[in-house]
Amino acid sequence: MPNLTFVLPHWLYWAGLILFPLAAMYIVRQRAKATGPKPSVTLSIGYMLWVCGGFVGLHRYYVKSALGLIFIPMFLLILYGNIEGRATRLILSETANNVNTLTKLEKRYVKRLKRRKSSRMERQLANIRKEIKPAIAARDVAQEKHDFWRDFSGAFAGIIALLLFLDAFRLPNLIRKTNEIEGEPPEPARIYGADIEASGSHEDPAANIKTKTTNVIDAISGFSGEFVAFWSILAVFVYYYEVIARYVFNSPTNWAHEAMFLMFGMQYLMAGAYALREDAHVRVDVIYIMLSDRAKLITDIVTSFFLFVFTGALLVTGGIFMMDSIDVFEVSFTEWAIQYWPVKIMITLGALLLVMQGVSKLIKDIVMLKRKLA
């Protein structure tokens, strides 16, 4: 199999982090607005499976096609060919180095004999020349075996690539036929007649309070949380590429891990405000859950001081890190050398969003407490 030398360009990384979530949010909202019967399988998921798992036929399983079973044996044969090819490559490297070493020694002794005749050097030169022929033969045999396994894996990879190319055009029709056969999907299952709640502790007595200020802040936090949530899908594509590059093409990347490491760090910073809005942060509530609503509100108002101390410190220190990083256009020390200053900007932005959401939470608690005391 040929080696993959692709390195993700910096501009494509940052553009993907911005444009992909926006496009995904638009698609999801358009589907939510759609009326009429909902399809059992969708084209967008079909193509995502075609891209991420087409090499083992996941897109075919999605449309209930038995032809997906032909992909797995061919992929396993590719892996087998690569294992054998890796072993023959080591042998080829050893035999080629042996030939190169003997060739260099031959040239060195020939030069010495031209300057000064020596029976001992002549015997050594003769022995070297005797070893060169079998060494060359061993290298040629290793080269043939290496080429065979390379072509073996390449042939099955070519067949899979051809099938995926054809399925790229056939997938819309396969999706349509599957929907015609299966009809609308069943309603989501319910447990004991109750819907399963998505997240949050649901213990905040002021969660349903709405004001003009809190509505704006909550909307901003909601947008930021939804925006970075779609970054997780990008990780599927990147790690898919890394696995294929490493185990199929024997070409591990020098950027995939760092790209995702930084992305998840920024996601953690940006999603903090959304988690606070949804009351989804981890808390020790052994005593809190036993309090009355009024006591809970008073507790939340008093302890908000510590929230603002933490977020304020994060905002100030993050701002210092951000300005220092922008001043020198900081990049990582790795071979990929990705820009670090956008990451440092996210520290400040995430802290600012947390401060804003903390203000929204404090306003809600005060409004609700006034109602309780009235």
Structure in a nutshell:
The chain is an all-alpha fold and 374 residues long. The chain has 11 helices and no strands. 73% of the residues lie in helices and 0% in strands.
What does this structure look like?
The chain has 374 residues and is mostly helical. It has helices spanning 10-33, 43-53, 58-62, 71-115, 119-182, 212-229, 231-247, 256-270, 272-277, 293-328, 341-373.
As residue ranges, the low-confidence spans are 189-198
Radius of gyration: 31 Å
Strand fraction:
under 5%
Count of alpha and pi helical runs:
11
**Major sheet: size, sense and barrel closure?**
none
Indicate the overall shape. elongated
Structural class, from secondary structure content? mainly alpha
In round numbers, the mean pLDDT is 87
Order of secondary-structure elements: HHHHHHHHHHH
Approximate helicity band: over 70%
Distance between the termini: 76 Å
Task: Give me the count of strands.
Answer: 0
Total number of distinct structural domains: 2
